[in-house]
Write a structure and sequence with these properties.
two-stranded antiparallel ribbon; 2 strands; globular
Length: about 500
């Protein structure tokens, strides 16, 4: 083996510590959604720029995940985990103290960078602390449950903190938790690392891909103001493509690439990540728009909105557990395709149920099947994305899957927010005189509906692509029970 670990550490205690860190990372990706209306009013942020509070985090998270994973391998998993927690906690403090839109968005980006160091280091601690087999499978199942449940719990906790204290506390709470995790890590987490590896980093690759994605998202967001065919939009899009093209060229020539492009020759990995990149945008955007609908249209408080998402947690758990039970019996492809189809149907129902005079039960009728489908989809796509990967590249495969999740979520939210805002602005622009409150709500709702329907369409595209591109032999190891997933 090319790695070393401290054998006197208890792997189960280390698992608890790194799972707490991962829970904080995943939770922070969604905890802000419920607080968005309060943040918008307090800092006077426009509806268009509101999405940057979410996207600044996810883009930096996704852009530096792979670099964080390599740094953890070379400098010690515990060391990088602690560095990540420190940056994340410090950025959380700045977020809570933010007095302007720019300060908040900048600190959210710094949070995402800290998360990019924490998450792969935490996963590497697990894969190096547990031998492959029953114990590692059990540990990874716990990790997957924490990761999938954190996003839904974030919505509830965000509502509780915003309503009972203030929106600043959704960030302040990370500081004492982060300090506790750091102290526990020093005592309970081994500092394993790759022995004898070269300590080179593909900084150019990390910067080019992150810059390219940031420019691309900014171009999509500003297209609502400039027009999709304007010189500014097309110029930024061209710059983004040039930066992403430079990233590919750098990876092909670098002796120590951030991503070994040859790994994408593995059909199961390429298809799973490509599909996940498409569908996750629709799933992430659901939380964003559903939170705004419940508060801005139905008049729910932040606390009530948080509780309204509790069935989502239950649905994700049900979908994940059901998928784990069905995969050995029916194979992974039927379960995965069914999960995606159920999620698409749920989003379609949610679109029809989103009305100015709507009810929570109409929303729940779409939220719950969407959550069940999402739980099943995450489990099965994780299995497919990591099957057939050599053990020494399991961390890289997991990092690519994590990156697809964060980048897909950011791009999807940017596209759907732009479409929704364009729809709302177009309807209001057709009116003569100052729009009434009812007219403004009606225009907002039509924008939300469009976002939900497009999100459902993205997931439907994922179903078609999987059915056409993923062959039974690509997932034969999973169906035979030989594959062990590395969950995102």
């Amino acid at each position: 083996m090319n790695r070393s670990a401290d054998s006197h550490f208890s792997p189960w205690l280390a698992l608890i510590v790194v799972c707490l860190g991962q829970f904080m990372v995943v939770l922070d990706a969604t905890i802000v959604n419920v607080a968005l209306p309060a943040i918008k009013a307090d800092l006077n942020i426009s509806q268009t720029n509101l999405q940057w509070i979410v996207n600044a985090y996810t883009l930096l998270f996704g852009g530096f995940l792979l670099l964080g994973g390599r740094a953890a391998d070379l400098f010690g998993r515990r060391n990088l985990f602690i560095v990540g927690v420190t940056i994340f906690s410090a950025a959380s403090l700045v977020n809570g103290l933010a007095s302007s839109e720019e300060m908040l968005i900048g600190a959210r980006a710094l949070q995402g960078f800290g998360a990019a160091l924490m998450s792969p280091a935490a996963l590497a601690v697990i894969t190096t602390s547990f031998s492959e087999g029953t114990e590692r499978t059990k540990a990874l199942s716990i990790w997957a449950a924490v990761a999938s449940g954190g996003s839904a719990v974030g919505l509830l906790l965000g509502g509780i903190l915003t309503e009972t204290l203030s929106w600043e506390w959704i960030f302040f709470i990370n500081v004492p938790i982060g300090v506790g995790i750091i102290l526990a890590s020093l005592r309970l987490v081994p500092n394993s690392r790759v022995v004898g590896g070269s300590r080179h980093f593909d900084i150019a690759g990390a910067i080019s891909v992150t810059a390219g994605l940031l420019v691309l998202v900014y171009a999509i967001v500003k297209a609502a103001d400039w027009g999709w065919g304007s010189g500014s939009t097309l110029g930024l899009a061209a710059l983004a493509l040039a930066l992403l093209g430079a990233f590919v060229a750098i990876e092909q020539r670098s002796p120590f690439p951030l991503v070994r492009l040859g790994l994408f020759k593995l059909r199961s990995l390429a298809v799973a990540n490509g599909v996940f990149l498409i569908v996750v945008g629709g799933l992430f955007a659901m939380f964003f728009f559903a939170s705004l609908y419940l508060q801005n249209i139905l008049g729910y408080s932040a606390l009530t909105t948080g509780f309204a998402f509790l069935p989502v947690t239950l649905g994700i758990m049900m979908g994940a557990v059901t998928a784990q039970q069905l995969v050995p019996k029916t194979g992974v492809r039927p379960v995965m395709l069914t999960g995606l189809a159920v999620a698409a149907i749920g989003l379609t129902i949610l679109g029809f149920g989103t009305q100015v005079d709507g009810t929570y039960f109409a929303v729940l009728g779409g939220l719950f099947p969407m959550a069940v489908g999402m739980g099943a989809t995450f489990v099965t796509l994780t299995l497919v994305a990591t099957t057939g990967v050599d053990e020494d590249e399991a961390g890289l495969a997991s990092g690519i899957f994590n990156t697809s999740q964060q980048v897909g979520g950011a791009l999807g939210l940017a596209i759907l927010s732009t479409l929704a805002n364009e729809r709302t602005s177009g309807l209001l622009g057709e009116l003569t005189g100052q729009p009434t409150q009812a007219q403004m709500q009606s225009a907002l709702v039509e924008g939300f509906q469009l976002a939900f329907f497009v999100a459902a369409g993205l997931i439907a595209v994922g179903v078609v692509l999987l059915a056409l591109l993923l062959r039974p032999r690509d997932v034969a190891r999973i169906d035979a029970g030989d594959a062990v997933a590395v969950p995102a």
